[in-house]
Design a protein that fits this description.
Length: 209
């Protein structure tokens, strides 16, 4: 159910919603056909970075792509040429840690949602504006931090669509968020959006939203 605990000390009792990156074996998350993460001992000359192989210490070379291997954070640097980093975005934020309002949203077909998406198909499952508004209203009715606008204390929203591990998203056209739903969140002061999806965009959108 939707919940916001105004008195929760989220620094003392944080809830970890991340998915760890799996090194080898069956990945917990796979998306966009990106190969799974891997780690192998660093080797140079006669030295090998593995105690089990006679090395003095373990020193792995890790290869992974956040967009397909696990929980990750993006900013405008993901879609622009400016090279803006997530670290720079975080340092500009009012706070480094913040509570997040959790909204449980039931995805619905794009064609029945009333929203538009340039590259979408009517049968695509989406997080639409109507569902986000309904989720926010449920929280408000339950005594959450809403009164037309989100409280200034809640600048992050986590949308839960019910995805379950393992996440095998490649080629599955997973649920995505419509621009109209994004505008609802933006207009209510939300600056950070968390989703249990590989992307807020359609898996194959042809560069069009």
């Amino acid at each position: 159910m939707d919940a916001f605990f105004a008195g929760l000390d989220f620094l003392a009792e944080p809830l970890d919603a991340s998915v760890a990156v799996s090194m080898g074996g069956e990945p917990a998350v796979s998306a966009f056909y990106i190969p799974g993460a891997s780690a192998k001992p660093f080797a140079v000359g006669s030295y090998v970075g593995a105690v089990a192989s006679g090395g003095s210490c373990n020193c792995d070379v890790v290869t992974f792509c956040p967009h397909g291997n696990g929980t990750h954070t993006e900013c405008m640097g993901h879609i622009t040429t400016c090279g803006f980093s997530v670290n720079a975005a975080i340092m500009r934020a009012d706070r480094l840690l913040m509570p997040a309002l959790v909204l449980r949203v039931e995805p619905e077909p794009l064609g029945a949602s009333g929203d538009e998406y340039a590259s979408g198909a009517p049968g695509d499952l989406v997080v639409c504006a109507r569902a986000v508004v309904a989720g926010l209203e449920r929280v408000a009715a339950a005594g959450g931090p809403l009164a037309g606008q989100l409280s200034s204390q809640v600048v992050a929203v986590a949308i839960c669509t019910g995805s379950r591990l393992p996440f095998a998203f490649s080629g599955a056209n997973p649920v995505y968020v419509t621009p109209a739903a994004m505008r609802v969140l933006r207009d209510r002061g939300v600056r950070h959006l968390l989703v249990d999806l590989p992307s807020a965009d359609r898996e194959d959108d042809g560069g069009k939203r």
